[in-house]
Amino acid sequence: QTVVTQEPSLTVSPGGTVTLTCASSTGAVTSDFYASWFQQKPGHAPRALIYATNIEHPWTPARFSGSLFGGKAALTVSGVQPDDEADYYCLLYFPGAQLVFGGGTKLTVL
Amino acid sequence: QVRLEQSGPEVKKPGASVKVSCQASSYILTSYGFTWVRQAPGQGFQWLGWVGSESGNTNYARDFQDRITLTADISTSSSYLELRSLTSDDTAVYFCASGQYHFYYYLLEVWGQGTTVIVSS
């Protein structure tokens, strides 16, 4: 059973920078995992932010960026705003055309 | 931007089947597909599978491939999820998402509002 792990929670101050990570139980995450990132606020459907590791959707605010860092996929939010308080989920592609979500990170802006 | 509209909430008994629909507000390109995921109460997401909007080709999560069917109707820009042999563990909000094919899978670009499915005796 493949497990994708994210930090359960992170706290950041307004205006600060925070990096969320996404790890695979199978080993290092590379560009071949085509990591995607989503934001979900309570009671709402998710919103897509990043795909294929570091490609932003047209609607993605510029302060969100994706990368690979230390064998994990990463989502960095620079200049955090109060509106960024939400749950963030990563999604990884695995051989055999299977996709697995991470457990999510609750981001608090305080 | 296209919007996805899903069918209303469902309450089912254990052992029954459920069918959830998802319709795009405008024409879906033939290169697009529909992906279905679910979110149990207070939990994260579970990927269920995808279906190509024109090809009808499907790819299912291994845990569900024996009791799930995804279909698509390009003429109505719609997709349908059927899940059979329901148990209480299937109680969740089911989401459809649509997006273009990118390398090996369909992106989850635009999401529906979600459909609550409750399985209870």
Explain what this protein looks like in three dimensions.
The complex is a heterodimer of chains A (110) and B (121). With 110 residues, chain A is an all-beta fold. Helices cover 0% and strands 53% of the residues of chain A. Chain A has strands at 4-6, 9-12, 17-24, 36-40, 47-51, 55-56, 64-69, 72-78, 86-94, 98-101, 105-109. Chain A is globular, with a radius of gyration of 13 Å. The mean pLDDT of chain A is 97. Chain B has 121 residues and is mainly beta. Chain B has no helices and 12 strands. Chain B has strands spanning 4-6, 10-12, 18-24, 32-39, 45-52, 58-60, 68-73, 78-83, 92-102, 105-106, 110-111, 115-119. In chain B, strands 2, 4, 5, 6, 9, 10, 11 and 12 form an 8-stranded mixed beta sheet that branches. Chain B has a 4-stranded antiparallel beta sheet with strand order 1-3-8-7, with no helix packed on it. Chain B is globular. Chains A and B meet through strand 5, strand 9 and strand 10 of A and strand 5, strand 9 and strand 11 of B.
In N-to-C order, the SSE pattern of chain B is EEEEEEEEEEEE
The N- and C-terminal alpha carbons of chain B lie at a distance of 40 Å
Structural class of chain B: mainly beta
Provide the helix percentage of chain B. Answer: under 10%
Q: Could you tell me which chain pair has the largest interface and how many residues each side has?
A: A-B, 23 and 24 residues
Mean pLDDT of chain B: 95
Residue share in helix of chain A: under 10%
Number of helices of chain B: 0
**C-alpha Rg of chain B, in Å?**
14 Å
Beta percentage of chain A is: over 45%
Label the overall shape of chain A. Answer: globular
What brief labels describe this structure?
heterodimer, A: 110 residues, 7-stranded mixed β-sheet, 4-stranded antiparallel β-sheet, B: 121 residues, 8-stranded mixed β-sheet, 12 strands
